[in-house]
Design a protein that fits this description.
The complex is a heterodimer of chains A (405) and B (242).
Chain A: H1 2-11, H2 15-54, E1 57-60, H3 80-88, E2 93-107, E3 112-120, H4 124-128, E4 134-137, E5 150-155, H5 156-161, E6 169-175, E7 181-192, H6 197-200, E8 203-207, H7 208-215, E9 222-227, H8 233-243, E10 248-251, H9 252-255, H10 257-295, H11 297-305, H12 310-345, E11 349-350, E12 360-361, H13 368-393, H14 398-403
Parallel strand pairs in A: 3-8, 5-7
Antiparallel strand pairs in A: 1-9, 1-10, 2-3, 2-6, 2-9, 4-7, 5-8, 6-7, 11-12
Helix pairs in contact in A: 1-12, 2-10, 2-12, 2-13, 10-13, 12-13
Chain B: E1 2-15, E2 18-31, E3 35-39, H1 46-53, E4 61-66, E5 69-70, H2 76-86, E6 87-90, H3 102-112, H4 117-130, H5 146-158, E7 164-168, H6 176-193, E8 196-201, E9 212-217, E10 220-228, E11 237-240
Parallel strand pairs in B: 3-8, 3-9, 6-7, 7-8
Antiparallel strand pairs in B: 1-2, 1-4, 4-5, 9-10, 10-11
Helix pairs in contact in B: 3-4, 3-5, 4-5, 5-6
């Protein structure tokens, strides 16, 4: 404690230099906290989007993701209703949503183009929430009327291409699972924006029942399982694997390609930035410690003459550096906290990423774990820098240090 | 009984690759409570002799003994610990730690010896009272005059009741009146504690207070004399021993 007090007093020797170093460390920590906070926000948003779309676990035919189907739903899941009923008995499972991936041709009578279709459950809008961005019209009916035409939601680009608006009649054509050609008439119920122009130009959604009728099958492509608590994911993955050995259980992470590529990219970018910031902190502390040592060589000699061991003098400088690093980090927490709150209060929008049409809000998360790592990193770097600086100053003998002008 | 004995001590430094002898065959003996002055011109080797006796420089030849401990055989760490335990230092330019208060500066040697907080406070209060600086305990060195600063340094040197005080030109930065006050105080406290004082100086004002004076010139102790107490304030006589 007495050494910490002395180290604290020593920080007040050259207040301007101490303040400048503190601010530099604080800015560095703010940089680390805000960039990692932004990355964490992005990861969580993408993670949530991916989980809302496909659930935490996906149940499918073992080869569904491995090879191309020779005919529609060749690698689909049969008896999906039974599986769903079984899974929903478990209170930890909130939704089990079957879906069908298919493609074919869409026509307005004058123009025909290809589409990428998705058969969805009526509960999908509930789980997707704001991730399902319906820009016009509404979601598919919860209870489709068999007497009416099938409903369809078109991607924005596809709607423009088909010159379709809400209520327009279109025709979907596809090959059935027997290889025959089939078609259904559909009414445009809504227009959706996925944020990816290439996707919007081809994308459409229909009820699972509509897709099954078109493809003449009872199979579905996959079952998305939504758990009430994501922490149960790995336990459930094992449980489902045991319970349905003929099916493949895939965690959402394995199918969230965009999330993974963004995470890999950001991890590298922000990792390099973090290293650069820590190197800056290292040089700042080294400079401060080196100047402090040079100014105090005679004092080091005096302390040595009074019986202070070299290790105690080094420890004193290391404590000073640690305090400087620790205080700078705390100041950095404060600055990044203010920035986090400011970004919550003022809606700052990021521009749309390459290949997408929608921007997103700039938000920064405050992570306790990152804060602790930043504190640890800065304090260790500070001590390392100080150790390098102080080594030379304490190599002089007491007599040499006392003679130092 | 002698507190500190130096026998045939020699020391040389390398200058331009050549050894320059700064101390040759120096011997001295300091008794408990004795006030010994090393007198000599600049560059005579008096500070080197003092530093060797204060264990902040090593000797090349000879022997240094303190109460049956052969000091010249100690490792660097042992020398540091010996200084911590047994020696007090007073420097020409006071060398107080500027960020510490007067009380903290005085308490520093006790902090190194792990004294309890209560004992430390009591002892510091006592010593500051003895040097007449009780009211300055919470001041910073920058708020003190030269004389006050050197009295703090004296208090710091004496606070742990060391066997020997090593003082290098303790009056060089002080005016005549202040120097006299500081030396009188130092002498009185050292005598009271039974602490020996070894002082390097070229200030003749210290001589009346000295029990023994070593005259050093060109690295040699040219003679040792004892002082005869002055019959009047202005008259000093040196009785030559050898």
């Amino acid at each position: 404690m007495k050494w910490i007090l002395l180290a604290w007093q020593n920080l007040g020797r050259n207040r301007r230099r101490t303040l400048a170093t503190l601010l530099l460390i604080a800015m560095g920590v703010t940089g680390i906290m805000t960039t990692t906070g932004f990355a964490l926000y992005t990861y969580e948003s993408l993670q949530e989007f991916a989980m809302r779309e496909n659930g935490q676990l996906i149940l499918s035919h073992p080869d569904f993701f491995e090879r191309e189907e020779e005919f529609p739903l060749q690698l689909g899941v049969a008896d999906s209703d039974d599986i769903r009923a079984t899974l929903l008995k478990d209170l930890n499972v909130s939704y089990v949503l079957p879906s069908i991936e298919f493609n074919g041709l869409i026509s307005n009578g004058e123009k025909t183009t290809i589409f990428m279709g998705r058969g969805v459950d009526t509960d999908l809008p509930k789980v997707m929430g704001p991730a399902l961005n319906i820009v016009d019209g509404r979601a598919l009916s919860l209870r489709p009327d068999p007497a009416q035409d099938y409903e369809v939601i078109l991607g924005q680009g596809l709607a423009e291409s088909m010159q379709a608006s809400i209520g327009s009649g279109l025709t979907l054509m596809s090959t059935t699972s027997d290889g025959a050609l089939n078609a259904i008439d559909v009414i445009v119920q809504g227009i959706v924006a996925t944020g990816i122009p290439e996707m919007d130009a081809r994308y459409l959604m229909v009820h699972n029942s509509s897709a099954q009728f078109l493809l003449d099958t009872d199979n579905v492509s996959q079952l998305s399982i939504y758990l009430r608590n994501s922490d149960l994911q790995s336990d459930y993955q094992q449980r489902l694997t045991d319970e349905f050995p003929h099916l493949l259980v895939t965690p959402w992470q394995d199918r969230a390609f965009f999330y993974r590529s963004v995470k890999n990219l950001y991890d590298r970018i922000f990792g390099v930035m973090g290293v650069v910031i820590l190197i800056m902190v290292l040089f700042a502390i080294f400079n401060t410690s080196a100047m402090s040592v040079m100014e105090r060589i005679r004092e080091i000699g005096t302390l040595g003459a009074l019986g202070t061991r070299r290790s105690e003098i080094i420890r004193l400088f290391l404590l000073e550096a640690s305090l400087l690093g620790g205080l700078g980090t705390l100041l950095g927490y404060g600055l990044s906290g203010i920035l986090t709150i400011a970004l919550t209060v003022f809606d700052v929008q990021m521009p749309a990423p390459p290949g997408q049409t929608e921007g997103y809000p700039l938000q920064v998360y405050f992570s306790g774990e990152v804060a602790l790592w930043a504190l640890f990193g800065v304090v260790v770097i500070s001590m390392l820098a100080s150790a390098l600086a102080v080594r030379k100053g304490t190599q002089l003998t007491v007599a040499e240090a006392l003679r130092y002008a | 009984m002698s507190t500190l004995v130096a026998r045939h001590v020699s020391k040389s430094y390398l200058s331009g690759g050549k050894p320059i002898s700064v101390l040759t065959d120096a011997s001295l003996s300091v008794d408990e409570g004795q006030f010994v002055t090393i007198l000599g011109p600049s560059g005579s080797g008096k500070s080197t002799l003092l530093n060797i006796c204060g264990l902040i420089e090593t000797l090349d030849g000879g022997e240094l003994i303190h109460k049956n401990t052969v000091l010249n055989k100690l490792t660097q760490r042992q020398r540091t610990d010996y200084r911590r335990q047994h020696l007090g230092f007073i420097f020409q330019s006071f060398n107080l730690v500027p960020v510490m208060t007067v009380a903290d500066n005085v308490a520093y040697p006790l902090m190194l010896l792990d004294w309890s907080e209560a004992d430390k406070k009591q002892r510091v209060r006592e010593v500051l009272k003895q040097v007449g600086l009780s009211d300055f305990a919470d001041k910073k060195p920058e708020q003190l005059s030269g004389g006050q600063s050197q009295r703090v340094a004296v208090a710091r040197a004496l606070v742990k009741r060391p066997s020997i005080i090593i003082a290098d030109e303790p009056t060089a930065s002080l005016d005549a009146e202040t120097a006299t006050q500081v030396i009188e105080q130092m002498k009185a406290l050292a005598t009271e504690q039974g602490t020996a004082c070894l002082i390097a100086t070229h200030d003749p004002r210290l001589l009346p207070y000295s029990d023994s004076v070593l005259h050093v010139d060109h690295g040699l102790i040219v003679r040792e004399s004892v002082t005869v107490k002055p019959v009047s304030e202005n008259h000093i006589t040196l009785g030559e021993l050898s």
